[in-house]
User: Fold these one by one.
Assistant:
Number 1:
Amino acid sequence: MKKIGQGLGILLFTLVAWHIIAMILSTPVLPYPALVIRSLFSGLAGGLPLHIAYSSMRIALSVLAALVVGLPLGIAIGYSKSLSRWLSPFLYLSYPIPKLALMPVIMLLFGLGETSKTIMIFLILFFPVTVDIAGAARAMNKEVFQTMKAFGACDMAIARCIVLPGVIPAVLDSLKVSLGIALSILFFAENSGTQHGLGYFIMNSWQKMDYINLYAGILTLALMGFALFLILDFIDDKVTAWR
């Protein structure tokens, strides 16, 4: 509740500053926040929920894919020295490549549909999540592993019962940072081959010079990011209360 209150306080301060700047500039390009909020509520009674649903679905699928691939891979790299020797060079060589630069290639290979959009966001999430998980697994106390092995535990059991719970904080922390970047990529990805999503809604409003709906879309995207952060924070508090 404290973080929600802090977020609402920051939002209120932003709206007040926005109103003052709009008064000073007095231009249609920067409408008053009251008009934007009114448009936002009108949109929620119209077609805006469909755009939110499409963007949310793309983010959810990308997060799920990043965890399904990145979690076991990160644990394997961090826990096993032999696997790390083979997989780490590939991971650290690919990580610095700007993912936005790969968008044309991905769209040529997979088309302009949902697959290319999900892959783009997946790439943004996959690398930091995997690297952070590998680092967390590598930093764990190896004496615990040796003790478990002394009692007859196999590598798979150690990875499942010790390493997996131990890297969950790294997963959540990494997702909190990466989701902000993923939402930025979502905006670009939704400008091609679709008529649904907040990115499309924002750019379509801009092309029509509908500045009020343009800012309503931007505000919705910001609130969506804030909601995702609160969800991850809630999961963090419940799952890793031992921290």
Number 2:
Amino acid sequence: MNPDFSRPLDISIPLSSDGSSPSAWYVDPMKIEIVRAGRFVGSVQEGGSTNFRNITFNPHGNGTHTECVGHIAQQVYSLNQHLKTFHFPAQLISLKPEVVTQDNELSKKGDYIITEAQVRQAFQGSSTKALVVRTLPNTQEKLHRNYSNTNPCYFHPDAIRYIIQQGIDHLLVDLPSIDREEDEGKLLSHHSFWEYPENTAFHRTITEFVFVPDEINDGFYFLNLMITAMENDASPSKPVLYPYL
């Protein structure tokens, strides 16, 4: 099968300085500020020769981003140094999170989680390297929501272990994290995905805050995972799916 490059399906959420982009982890909205220095003003509208602006944001808390194991490691690891290929066969699945009915060592009653059984039932990709998970209901609120202090849906570590057992190296989700918002810093699903620190998989990535419109059907696609050339554990990213001919 060949990808149809004339039909790009962008599943990233644009960053915006007006506060409309989704956010998490109590970070401020992205800021875009005109540079002003002496008589210089970086705004054509204000009489300057060029538009010249500073941008301030947090890659984990502001919009679509891709991260590497450097997110949880004691050592400094850069996504730019460890993600060296950018095109992968991918499967898109849609899952309705389950409600936890009683407290346990991983979850609290009322939490919404993605379980191993759900992923196992939906996954079909024998040679798939990327998995995109769309959670249901798939509301437009995902494009603008501030997830801080809302205890959003997350993945059970068993689901993550099943995902990597299927050969998935790149996990893309429409959530702010694959772990519980408040978990005492354990980040069990992140640790499971990267097998850190025992058998660290440096090449694997997690992409969070994607949005997959309803008109994109579950199934198989060709993924182009674009990042910024930035020496950091995470980068703003632009994942684009292409249907097969």
Number 3:
Amino acid sequence: MSQSTRQNDGAPVIQIGDSILEINGTSVTDPAIQGVTNDSDGAILTIRLNRNGAEMVVDVKPFTEEIYSPRGFDLKPGEGFFEAAREAVVFPVAMFRLTVFSIRSAISGDIEPYNVVSGPVGMVTIVSDVVNEPDVETSVKTESLVMIAAVISIGLAFTNLLPLPGLDGSDMIMLIIETIRGKKVSKKTERVINIVGFVIIILLVSFALTSDIIRLVV
């Protein structure tokens, strides 16, 4: 026999093991349930659930909690042009800090090195997972793909600024050195530097490809 109670004592309303049946009278199996939660705008939601075989009715006030994930980002809607302009500056900085954090964690052994980088195979896998995700609206997939493109673009920009021969970062450093010395580096030295840089880039590309394969296998 089921019972209906309303919990208002401040304890956690929904507990581990609860099975939610309805939200504001709409069954969780109804496709319209997403609209019920998304359009609540912070209003109290009445939830009917099953706990240990007994039905209960509880009130829940939804709220937005800002959190971060070590493996990615959680997005929330912006609030106009100035907010978007601010995020356009903050987001690349956050990406740079995340990159530094990931490299430092890999060196310290907190995360596996193959989880730090991603090559073409990994990028294609991520895009494929987003596109083939079932029961997800096209607009949500499009937003995710645009965000992935932004992350890849920022990653390529930072990579290009690394002080490795063959990349723009190396050219900038060479320009500074030549400015300080007052003369250009010899052709022989420049050739040796480019060869070393080419070898390093090939090794990095090989490591990224290997990392992608390991993630697919593990």
Number 4:
Amino acid sequence: MTEKNTPETAEISPPVVPPADPDADLRDRLADAVAAEAAFEGWTRAALQVGSKRLELPAGEADRLFPGGAIQVLTHLSERADLRTVEDMEKEGVAALKIRDRIRSAVRLRIERHAGEREAVRRALAVLSLPFNAGLGLKLLYRTVDAIWYAAGDTSTDFNFYTKRATLAGVYSSTLLYWLNDRTPGAEATWSFLDRRIDDVMKFEKLKSQVRSWGSGKTRARSA
């Protein structure tokens, strides 16, 4: 009779580590080249081809690296920016800050990843606002705010998990749009705008807490 594995005798397999992507560096270089061209060509196949020529890649190499075209490049850059923002937050030790300051720092770091690429970002938002790309736009926005909350130390699993991300999506999106037209030195007007948005959210959260407390108090009074 074959002995059945039990929790005490079953072997635990080590986690599977995905193999390193041998094209990672080249894919990043091509994505950066396409982003530079997107300011002029938009997020189009033309920008992908021009970026490929700039790197002197063999014919067909750009399509191999990004078979989904320029939209896949845009997705790659957004996800890479999310990852690097999390890394930056860890390097700067934001975990020691108050939650308000962690979020402020994260949003600023994420937007500053696009420094010098305002027109490319503007065109990216325009492309993602098209009906057939709207789903992707929402998915990328969710991934960004989820990464920020993760790096900020959020461990919520209840309804707050979703409300936090929905609230931050509004703060991040409005701040990004403000930044696109900000010409103040160091984008200081943008960071002041970000402070005001976060202040508004904090006031709203405080009000919600007070309303919940008031409602709980009335319930206890009725049952007394």
